[in-house]
Amino acid sequence: MTGAAPPPAIERQLATLPDQPGVYLWKDADGTVLYVGKAKRLRQRVRNYFTADFSDSPKHRLLRRLIADLETIVVPSEPEALLLENNLIKEHRPRFNIALRDDKSYPSIAVTLGDPFPRVLVVRRTDIPKARYFGPYTDVAVLRRTLRIIRRLFTVRTCTFDLPAEAPDRPCLEYHIHRCLAPCVALQSREDYRAMIDDVLAFLEGRTVQVRTRLRERMEDASTRLDFERAADIRNSLRWLDQLERPQGVEMVSGADADAIGYARDGDDAVGVIVVARDGKVVAREQRFLENLAEEPDEAILSAFLVRHYLPRPARARHAVLPFAPSDATEIAALAAGTEFTMPQRGAYARLVELADQNARHLLESFRLESFETEERVEDPVYALGRDLGLTTVPRSFVCVDISTSQGRDTVGSLVWFEAGRPKRSEYRRFKIRGEAGSEAPAPASGHPDDYAAIHEVLTRYFTRRVEEKRALPDLVVIDGGKGQLSVAVEALGALGLGAVPLASLAKREEEIFLPGALESLRLPRRAPSLRLLQRARDEAHRFAITFNRARRRARTVTSALLGIPGVGPARRRTLLERFGSLAGVRIATTDEIASLPGFSTRLADRILNHLKT
User: Any idea what the Cα angle at residue 460 is, between residues 459 and 466, rounded to 5°?
Assistant: First the structure.
């Protein structure tokens, strides 16, 4: 990997970064926030983006290319950095951060605690002052069933009056069918109504034993006051609650309350699940779908789910069980006051985690089905690729070409072959670029090496030899790049008389597909099987190219250090590296060890060590 030079404005900021915890915001030239990250030490973390150790994935290369400005915020501790990062991600929704699927697309249950006589509503927004929210519910049938149970157990008002400022002259039908006790006309006191709302909250939180106890107390109180009709209504509610509880009794997990976190992932999509267990029974399940996960490790995704969805929950259990450790385990534990996180390996809690994982896998599969993922399984992506690109021949075999360079040096090309949608590694080829693009000259001032000549050279050399050997040509040639790279490929094949070979290029930034002669780029759905196949080939070509580039760079670095030593030619350099393994091994060798090698003397050994130490 090769470090990238930061923009001048950022380079000046890097010199003044504090060595403290904090949050950093990468911005583009328009001031749009691209990425929000946290750091234990801002100076070390931010500088790392421009070093050779930083990940060279397509996502990170694009991020570094777009970076134009930096903003940092210093905080006292690492947990506060994690919390601030979460808040800023919610505010800015950066394109390079892990994205939780928009909660507003799912309905939730809201209890309007800010009202004197609260209501229970179905909402898609969470902006009601002082309201408590439960959900969101991805399964609307579960939401409706929950509301029916609340209406059956509790006498929550359904009217829209702003009580007590507004009130009707007489009770409505809900009062006469015993679904409401008419607080609107003062037939139920505010204190009694709020006590009933407390029971609603307890029910929604899964504390059904507490609800049953309170209902039984009110039934006995009504009997004492000779209000037998009210006592009968409460008795019927208790029977309904018992009936509701009976099927859930099979889900016994332990005697204590617990929250189990489940997780499942498939490529760029994942789902996090919270299974709520109260009094030994599973009483609820919540979930969030996560997107934009390219190259993100599972530990970081689980950490984002916990910070942005689980920690804000107002009714967490004292014990939360996880499938594995998140990346910010220490900071999350510091933020989750009153909740202990564990990763059980056996027993009831381990079974509860497995139950949560099973739910996550089921939800992710359902999400795939809803997103037409079945099309990818049923339809052959090779046929889909031919259809979407408008080819006259099904591309049963195709190649993908990529160029890799290190600031204009060690330029290499790679060509990978796919047969029936699968890599055929025996047909992979790699190229040392011999022309201008492969020279040892520094990169152009623009910082963008000219890979056009490299693409032309790779295609010319590959297809010339292929034709000479009378071997089969691929049904399609894919170039990693945009319009410019495609034009060069068209020119190269045309010069060889192979203009009939279909060509396409895939641009990384927006995953646009360019075709010869087409005025507009082709943009396929993100989940299209044909696009997935092209992306897989592109990524494989890049992996193959970057591996070869690194090998050449290492060899050049080691060899160059030994160049210029009188008496040390290619054969002796090879002997040194074979004996000591690396340049570092040669540096720490003794004079006697080097002199003992065939063709070396004590005088030559001293000369080599003196040269390497200068």
Answer: 85
